[in-house]
TrEMBL record:
Pfam families: AIPR. It comes from Aquamicrobium zhengzhouense. Residues 247-451 form the Abortive phage infection protein C-terminal domain. InterPro entries: AIPR_C. It comes from the Bacteria. This is AIPR family protein.
Length: 637
């Protein structure tokens, strides 16, 4: 049977594009779907699609869509600093991309727009440019503007050279805060593989200039000059188009590679780079194989498993110092380069080969131990998520996508190998954690507004997985399945972006909270246990029962529709905090961390819930009450 790493790229691309081309969209919509799917999978869980700004169309200034990524807002290291990044995306799907000339012409259009050389823009692009102008005026050293080309296939060598020329033009005119990334479907595919997508026998090979000596058959130890490490990272990005890919095996990749960097490291690199090796613990690179030459090592499939923050900080500081453009000589920069030439990073290179997964996991775990990474931070690498993936497949025929793009890979596998297990339903693990957090944990506002709290090491995630003593046992497969069913049937009620009913466009996470609030009230009156594990088990039974599901979800939908109707006594628009604290800003109000927490924060919602809880105990024409219908489903065998 084929496994996911044996899928040909063309099969993966065909499966990946199914969602993009479904329904025969217009050319504009096709390009938008393509870029949206590609950028969200590349960014993984650091953004919400509602935060995109769409500019595509006439006089868009070369920008199809844009988003501001403020990075993770939760980090254990309070000495860190997190830069903000504007991503400006050009969608080049199908015939929209015609080689190097497309990159140069369309890229220069964006650079002209950012440099104020294009005055006739549509209203959306004008609004974006006003925000970007304010951003540039107040930008810090870690803030960036990145132009992203979204293409179907990787760039050719000619196209990579054109991209390098365009990057030089951009940094000359806009400064070191400007950069360019090239993404393709292969970028996502490669993240799911350990070998190159183009030709399964061809491995990515990148040279590193370093002084390394053997220490046993599979280990090299030594030092790497700071400029050489920066050159290695540049070569890696030029080959892959995706620098973040080098951190795929690092646990902190799952906490956001665009995260916080250490102020002390930045300070040392800027002021005393020659001393960097004295203060830094070094880096560990795992490879499939290596070949030692005179003063250099060729690395096959390198991954940095320890040193993500170190190497990203080196990258950022060197990029700022050396990519500012200009043809003259800057004495200050030259003096800094002379000191940087003396700086080194201690390095270990470990060969793990084809069957080194367990060794890789151990290396990742122990080389990161000094950073106080907790056990649950390793879920995406080694632990529970993979276990739950197998359990959901066996028990519920549900495919759990652990990493964005995994479902497209699974579809390609199913299409090319009919003998493999054929899933028709799937869910993303991070999405289910947010459903659970909004519903079971009551964090609807946080779920609507942010992702980091729901990722490993996030505050809500830790509450979810570490509360076994008070939640009725350890979080597990039943909880995920209950969250999946709630997500599935909520979609059938038309919640989410583009919903026909205005009341349901921004209220999906609040709906999860309302469903659980009503359900826990029904259970407590039965009486029935209301710890999280018991609620999840009961919720599965109710949602799989037509009558029980309708009795619960219909009532919750009524609560939302009533709450979002102006003129009702218990309307959202009469909430004191909405009027006084948020100045009638609905979006900000719905992202409020205290949303629906207590009577004090949202008294109108609490009153509306109380009324509907009473209604659920009333019988109509001698029929069962909604409470009785729901409990009948809970108690069914």
């Amino acid at each position: 049977m084929k496994t996911s790493d044996e899928i040909a790229f063309e099969d993966y691309r065909a499966s990946w594009l199914e969602d993009v081309t479904k329904g025969g969209p217009s050319t504009v919509e096709l390009g938008r779907r393509f870029a949206l799917k590609l950028i969200t999978q590349w960014m993984e869980d650091s953004i919400e699609t509602d935060n995109f700004i769409y500019c595509d169309g006439s006089r868009d200034g070369g920008i199809d869509l844009a988003l501001l990524d403020t990075g993770p807002e939760e980090a254990a290291d309070e000495t860190g600093v997190s830069g903000h990044t504007w991503y400006l995306v050009q969608s080049k799907y199908g015939s929209a991309f015609a080689g190097p000339q497309t990159l140069l012409i369309e890229g220069q259009k964006v650079i002209d727009t950012l440099d104020g050389k294009r005055e006739r823009l549509n209203s959306l692009a004008e609004g974006l440019m006003e925000r970007l102008s304010n951003f540039k005026r107040g930008a810090g050293p870690a803030d960036k503007i990145v132009l992203v080309f979204a293409t179907e296939t990787p760039l050719s060598e000619d196209e990579k050279r054109a991209l390098a020329d365009l990057r030089s033009m951009g940094t000359t005119r806009l400064g070191p805060m400007f950069d360019i990334e090239a993404l393709s479907i292969e970028t996502i595919f490669a993240r799911l593989q350990e070998i190159e997508a183009v030709g399964l026998t061809k491995r990515l090979r990148v040279s590193l200039d370093a002084q390394m000596v053997p220490s046993g058959p599979d280990l090299l130890v030594g030092s790497v000059g700071l400029p050489n490490l920066y050159a290695f990272l540049k070569r890696y990005r030029n080959e892959t188009g995706d620098l973040d890919r080098i951190y795929e095996k690092n646990v902190r990749r799952f906490l956001g590679a665009r995260g916080k960097v250490n102020k002390a490291m930045q300070s040392t690199l800027r002021d005393a780079p020659e001393r960097f090796g004295l203060y830094n613990n070094g880096i560990t690179i795992v490879v499939h194989d290596y070949s030692v030459g005179e003063g250099s090592v060729e690395l096959a499939e390198p991954f940095i498993v320890n040193g993500c923050q170190t190497t990203r900080t080196i990258w950022d500081v060197f990029h700022t110092r050396l990519s500012s453009g200009g043809t003259g000589v800057n004495p200050e920069t030259e003096a800094w380069k002379a000191k940087a030439d003396q700086g080194v990073v201690v390095a270990k290179i470990v060969k793990v080969g084809n069957s080194g997964e367990s060794l890789l996991q151990a290396i990742t775990r122990y080389t990161n131990s000094q950073n106080a990474i907790r056990e649950k931070d390793f879920l995406a690498l080694t632990g529970d998520f993979k276990t739950w993936q197998g359990q959901l497949a066996d028990q519920h025929d549900l495919y759990l996508e652990i990493q964005r793009g995994g479902w497209d890979s699974q579809k390609a596998l199913q299409n090319t190998n009919p003998a493999t297990k054929q899933f028709t339903e799937h869910a993303n693990a991070a999405d289910l954690i947010k459903v659970y957090g909004a519903g079971w944990m009551g964090e609807a506002g946080l779920a609507f507004g942010k992702n980091p709290p729901f990722l490993p090491d996030g505050s809500v995630f830790k509450r979810i997985v570490n509360g076994a003593d008070v939640d009725g046992g350890a979080f597990g497969v039943t909880d995920l399945y209950a969250a999946y069913l709630l997500q599935k049937y909520t979609a059938q009620y038309g919640f989410g972006r583009g919903a026909p009913k205005q009341s349901r466009r921004q209220s999906r996470f609040l709906y999860f909270l309302v469903v659980l609030d009503l359900f826990k009230d029904v259970l407590s009156r039965a009486p029935h246990p209301t710890d999280h594990r018991s609620v999840a088990t009961a919720m599965v039974k109710v949602l799989k029962n037509d009558s029980g599901r309708s009795a619960l979800l219909d009532r919750a939908a009524e609560v939302i529709d009533s709450y979002f109707t102006q003129g009702n006594d218990d309307s959202l628009f009469n909430e004191p905090s909405y009027l006084n604290s948020f100045n009638a800003d609905l979006n900000a109000f719905l992202k409020w961390e205290k949303l629906a927490r207590s009577d004090a924060e949202t008294p109108r919602l609490k009153q509306l819930l109380a009324v509907n809880k009473s209604v659920m105990g009333m019988s109509l024409a001698g029929n069962q009450t909604p409470r009785q219908t729901i409990m009948a489903a809970v108690n069914a065998a």
